[in-house]
Structures are given as C-alpha cells and as structure tokens.
Amino acid sequence: MAPAFLFNPLNPNALKSRLESANEKWKRLKHTSAFHDLVLFLVFVAISTFFWIILALNDNAQGSYNVKVAINNCPDSVTFISDIPEKLHVTVRDKGTSIWRNHYRHPTMNINFKEYADAGELRYSKNDIITSLKSIFGPSAQIVSISLDSLYLEYTSNKGKRVPVVVDADVSAASGSIIEGFTKASPSNVLVYGDQKVLDTIHKVRTERLILSDLSENTTVEVHLRKISDARILPSKVNVTVPVEPLVKKKASITITPVNVPHGESLLLFPSKVPVEYYVAMSRLNDDDDPEIELEVDFKAIPPSHNGKLHVRVARYPDRLKNLSLINDSVEFTIVKN
C-alpha cells in the first residue's frame, strides 16, 4: 500500500486536492505586483513590435521576382522561330509594403503581338520592358535590374515542312541479349518552320547523340532534336525506342562447298554436312538460316600425301547470327577424276 503522503494519480480525491491547490496559487499570483509588471511589460513589447513592423514596411526595400512572359493576340498561323523566354528575373526597389505584397503575386509581362510584330520580327525594347514592369509593380517601383535588355523574336507564317527524323545512336546490348532491328523515333516525321529558302535546304533532322550500353530489354528514351539555324522544329524532341531481345541457341546442319577444285577433278567429303551452333534473337528462332550460312573446304589445302583431313572454315553468315561455331571443324575427303 502506498504511503499516505505520496500523490496517487488513481485517487480522485488526491487529484482534486492538487488542482484546488494550483488554482489557489494562480489566484494569489495574479494579485501580486510582479505579475502586473510582467503583463505591462509584455503589452509594451507587443506594441513596440507592431510599430517597428509598420515603420520597417514603410522603409524602402529590395526584392527579386520571376516575371512570366506572355505574347497575346498571336494568330494561329504564326510560328516563332526564336525561343520565347519563359520568364524574366527582375530586381525591384520599393516600399516594404509593396515588396511584401508582390511576393504573393504571380506577375506576368503581356506583349501584344499585333502592336510589336511586323514583317517576321517582333521587337520589344528595353523601354518597353521597363514600362510594362512599371505597370506591374506600380509607378513608385524602381527597376534595379532585368535579366533581359530587350526582346527580339523571329517568326514565320509559312506552313511547316514535314521531314523524317534520323536517329543518331550508339547503343549496345548486355551479354545474352541482342539489338534486333533498328532504333526508331516516334514521331518518325516532324515539322520544320522557317523562311522558304531555309526550308528548301532541309531534308531531314537528326537527334542528339544517344549513347546507351548494357541494354537487356526494350528501351525508350526521350531525345532532343538537333537545332537548325534560322529554323524551328516541332516537336523539338522525340521518343527513341531501342528493340532488345534475349538470345537463344540454335543448331543447324550445313552443306560444305569445296573451292579451288581443278577442272576434271571432284572432291567427295565425308560427311558432306557438318553441324554448327549459334545464337539468334528469340523472335527469329523459327527462321530458315541455312541458305545464308556458307562453309568451305579448300582443295589447295590438301597435303601432298592426300592423307589426313581437310579443315572446314566458315565463309559467310549474316550479322544477326551471333557466336557461330563449328561442332566438327574437319572432314575426310576423296579426290575423284572425272
């Protein structure tokens, strides 16, 4: 049993007594002069802080903003050849209240295409930019710095020329896999915009160099297209797919062809066919590869004694067959006079 002088949290009478004691202490503290002095001090601190904030906000301050660039009233037939900047970085000096308020806005500099564009060019001078920024931040704002002095954009109303995309890639498969087929771009054709003289010289566009290695499965990568001077390509990037398949082992029995046999003689081989093994992409497992594999024996390699065997060599086979090897690399022979 717990001693009577210890507080037992399970005893409701003891808890009530403790709360009443704390309440009595708080009542006595509220009526002390020290408590009144502390409350008065905190009130003066709060008032001083409030006035300090008001004065600080009325002082000049400096803030930096990202201002979006938007071109309005642009006809659908117009395509900009130059890249339109997404935003300007602007530093502004103004009263603290204005600086604080502008941080919660999303300022946008709107440019009227019909007012500033003519004959394939849109020009927006530094004065135009400052005037636009003044209308955004207010006449009292001082524009300290701008990331862009002026804006010069080229555009065209010509229809785009459709040209094919050529993939520039250096890709390799991992061990046990093979790149089966060609790398493909999607879309395979894009539109190029520009002056007609420029378009007449463009017949294809190329991707940026794509380097991939150790691929073990089909891989698709987003790749940018190489820029062309005085022209714009839309879209500016494509998806490039590299077809990768696992390799599977395959065997075949291939007829041997004698070469360099003199006129009036024949060469009989025993056996006339030898087995070979190689690897192919899984999708080509059922292809008939035999006609494309050539094996040879050279009559000139027969020793003077006409004894022994002739070495069989692989003369030709397509690149899609990997690691082709002979299971038997020599055969017996007999020379026959015709």
Briefly, what is this?
The protein is 21% helix and 44% strand. It is of the alpha+beta class and 338 residues long.
Notes on the protein architecture:
This protein has 338 residues and is an alpha+beta fold. The chain contains six helices and 26 strands. Strands 11, 19, 21, 22, 24 and 25 form a six-stranded mixed sheet that branches. It has a four-stranded mixed sheet with strand order 4-1-3-7. Strands 2-8-6-5 form a four-stranded antiparallel sheet. The longest helix is centred in the first third of the chain and has 26 residues, at 33-58.
The global form is: elongated
What is the number of beta strands?
26
**What are the low-pLDDT stretches, counting only 5+ consecutive residues below 50?**
1-7
Query: Kindly, what is the distance between the CA atoms of the first and last residues, rounded to a whole number of angstroms?
Result: 125 Å
Largest beta-sheet details: 6 strands, mixed
Query: Radius of gyration, Cα only, in angstroms?
Result: 43 Å
Number of helices: 6
Strand residue percentage: 35-45%
Proportion of residues in helical segments: 10-25%
Question: How confident is the prediction overall: mean pLDDT?
Answer: 88
Question: What would you call the quaternary organization?
Answer: single chain
- The SS-based structural class is alpha+beta
